[in-house]
């Protein structure tokens, strides 16, 4: 028997009606067991006043410091239970941002009764109940989060329903944090430009006490908006010939003014606070001051600090300890070269037995290879090189006083007959493990560190990168 077109159409209609009936029956069953979840609705972070993260044993409750939207405390959070402390607003903002645009359901996993919650991490002892509250006592969003599936996607269930779905709620790890991990880790957050004076008290290598006093001088310039730029720091009683590097000193102040905890230890934690290795005091323009003590059990892995009147011991970056104990000579002026293009006759790089000379063309912004013959200069690389060499700064002083020349040497030839040379030494690593090259500048005794990438960019202009 052969089916005509009309018969095919009728058959397709029967199949479609059957599918619709099946879908309707499925949705009706789902409604009997709990509402079919299609998406978690959008919720603007500014609408959230309280967050609760609950397990079978504990509830973490986070609240805004102020419910008034225009107040300073609106963007600040606190932990109310099970401990009382400042909360990390950055962590909370990241959590709320996940729900800002709504969360679509990626897949419906199980629809109803008889579900084995354990396989999804949704049983009572393992699930995390996340509730976001507005101004009332009824949560605007409530979701049970189980184990992760892929990336930040997790199995979830809406309380009051039996349906297990999969959705990207930002991952389970964030909700597994203990209450202490929601604490505000920004222990000190000051504007370094507002520091007018700071002191560091410590012992010298010979055991004698030492107090360094740094005072900010008056402003000598303005920024692009016409505002005065804070003056440079000077060391009171500095030995002759020691000029501090203004950029380095601003970095030192910022390191001390912005301290973020990696962890909080109990007040009685044995970090050597009874006999601190160093103590710094920052004095601000408004007359306030802040004190930082470095425990003598600090190491290259962490600095143990006590900040102001906070009772707990703060475990923070090892860089803070290095700053507080660094010899003041590490902060001397790191400017190696200051060159004007119009004063340069040529620059010669000797590397691997070959010497290449670059010279600026008079009246143009181009460069020419004058040695060896018949080579063209890479104009982009040459201009980048001069941008580096013209205001060359060292990354720091070499802790190793030994210098072994490698034969690589940059000579700057001036039109007035003067010569300056920069000589390359061995490759090393600094205290942070970054690759460096030792260099020595003619006329100066110090051995400096130059970033490896800076060395490569200089060489590249001469065809040696």
Describe the structure.
This protein is 17% helix and 34% strand. The model is unreliable at 1-35 (pLDDT under 50). α5 (379-389) packs across α6 (452-460). The chain is α+β, with helices and mostly antiparallel strands.
Supply database-style keywords.
single chain, 465 residues, alpha+beta, eight-stranded antiparallel β-sheet, 6 helices, 17% helix, globular
Short description:
This protein is 17% helix and 34% strand. With 465 residues, the chain is an alpha+beta fold.
Mean pLDDT: 88
Share of helix, binned: 10-25%
Count of helical regions:
6
Radius of gyration: 33 Å
Report, as a whole number of angstroms, the end-to-end distance: 81 Å
Shape: globular
Largest beta sheet: strand ordering: 1-6-10-9-8-7-2-3-4-5
Number of strands: 28
Q: Approximately how much beta-strand content do the residues carry?
A: 25-35%
The biggest sheet, with number of strands, parallel, antiparallel or mixed sense and barrel status, is: 10 strands, antiparallel
Low-confidence parts: 1-35
By secondary-structure content and strand pairing, the structural class works out as: alpha+beta
């Amino acid at each position: 028997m052969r089916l005509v077109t009309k018969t095919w159409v009728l058959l397709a209609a029967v199949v479609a009606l059957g599918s619709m009936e099946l879908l309707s029956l499925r949705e009706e069953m789902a409604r009997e067991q709990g509402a079919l979840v299609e998406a978690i609705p959008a919720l603007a972070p500014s609408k959230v006043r309280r967050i609760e993260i609950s397990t079978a044993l504990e509830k973490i409750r986070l609240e805004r410091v102020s419910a008034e939207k225009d107040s300073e405390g609106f963007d600040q959070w606190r932990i109310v239970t099970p401990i009382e402390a400042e909360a990390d607003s950055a962590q909370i903002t990241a959590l709320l941002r996940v729900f800002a645009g709504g969360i679509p359901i990626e897949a419906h996993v199980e629809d109803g009764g008889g579900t084995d919650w354990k396989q999804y991490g949704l049983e009572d002892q393992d699930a995390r109940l996340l509730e976001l509250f507005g101004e009332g006592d009824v949560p605007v969003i409530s979701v049970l989060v189980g184990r992760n599936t892929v990336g930040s996607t997790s199995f979830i269930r809406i309380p009051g329903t039996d349906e297990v779905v999969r959705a990207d709620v930002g991952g389970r790890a964030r909700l597994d944090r203990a209450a202490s991990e929601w604490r505000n880790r920004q222990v000190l957050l000051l504007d370094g430009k507002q520091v007018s004076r700071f002191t560091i008290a410590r012992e010298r290598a010979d055991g004698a006490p030492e107090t360094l006093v740094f005072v900010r001088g008056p402003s000598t310039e303005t920024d692009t908006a016409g505002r005065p730029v804070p003056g440079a720091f000077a060391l009171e009683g500095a030995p002759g010939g020691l000029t501090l590097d203004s950029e380095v000193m601003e970095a030192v102040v910022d390191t001390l003014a912005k301290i973020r905890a990696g962890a909080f230890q109990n007040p009685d934690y044995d970090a050597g606070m009874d006999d601190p290795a160093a103590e710094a005091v920052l004095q601000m323009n408004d007359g306030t001051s802040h004190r930082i003590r470095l425990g003598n059990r600090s190491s290259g892995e962490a600095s143990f600090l006590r900040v102001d009147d906070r009772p707990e011991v703060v475990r923070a970056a090892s860089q803070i300890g290095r700053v507080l104990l660094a010899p003041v000579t590490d902060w001397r002026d790191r400017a190696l070269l200051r060159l004007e293009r119009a004063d340069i006759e040529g620059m010669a790089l000797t590397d691997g037995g070959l010497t290449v000379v670059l010279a600026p063309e008079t009246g143009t912004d181009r460069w020419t290879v004058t040695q060896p013959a018949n080579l063209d200069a890479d104009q982009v690389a040459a201009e980048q090189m001069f941008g580096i060499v013209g205001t060359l700064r060292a990354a720091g002083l070499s802790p190793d006083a030994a210098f072994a020349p490698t034969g690589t040497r940059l000579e700057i030839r001036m039109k007035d007959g003067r010569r300056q040379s920069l000589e390359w030494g061995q490759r090393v690593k600094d205290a942070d493990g970054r690759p460096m090259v030792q260099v020595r500048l003619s006329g100066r005794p110090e051995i400096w560190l130059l970033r490896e990438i800076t060395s490569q960019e200089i060489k590249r202009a001469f065809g040696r990168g």
